[in-house]
Design brief:
The protein has about 130 residues and is of the alpha+beta class. About 35% of the residues lie in helices and about 20% in strands.
């Protein structure tokens, strides 16, 4: 039986965000609209917003964004600048490193070339121990 894992406290730093974002393949530091950002495959991936201690998370569409805003307005918000953008701002003090990794992984996978995803998924599958069916 596994021991229960200790739940992570909410809140991450800008340095933790950067470390998590840069841990994905084909990511690098860059500039997006004059702001320091993290790029994936040469395109905007995310960026830290010092002015409100948040990061930009692009999502699948305006409907997805609106659902997140409705679901948890303490964590997710937008400014006028982002009203027509399919993304949200995520307050760093309201998320764990694991949540940020999951959010950014969804975004990264949406951006990644299909061939790279197949290679990564195959490598992960090969490392995963197979269980016998009963």
């Amino acid at each position: 039986m596994k021991k229960p894992t200790k739940k992570s406290a909410k809140g991450i730093t800008a340095a933790q965000l950067k470390k998590i974002a840069l841990s994905f393949p084909e990511t690098e530091e860059g500039i997006s609209y004059t702001h320091p950002a993290i790029l994936a495959f040469g395109k905007f991936f995310t960026r830290y917003r010092k002015e409100d201690n948040s990061f930009v998370l692009a999502v699948s569409g305006i409907e997805h964004r609106d659902m997140l805003l409705e679901m948890d307005s303490k964590t997710y918000f937008i400014t006028d600048h982002y009203k027509s953008f399919p993304g949200v701002l995520v307050r760093l003090e309201h998320v764990t490193p694991e949540e940020v990794r999951a959010m950014l992984e969804c975004r990264w996978r949406a951006m990644a070339p299909k061939k790279l995803l197949k290679e990564i998924d195959a490598a992960v599958s090969a490392k995963t121990p197979k269980t016998k069916k009963r």
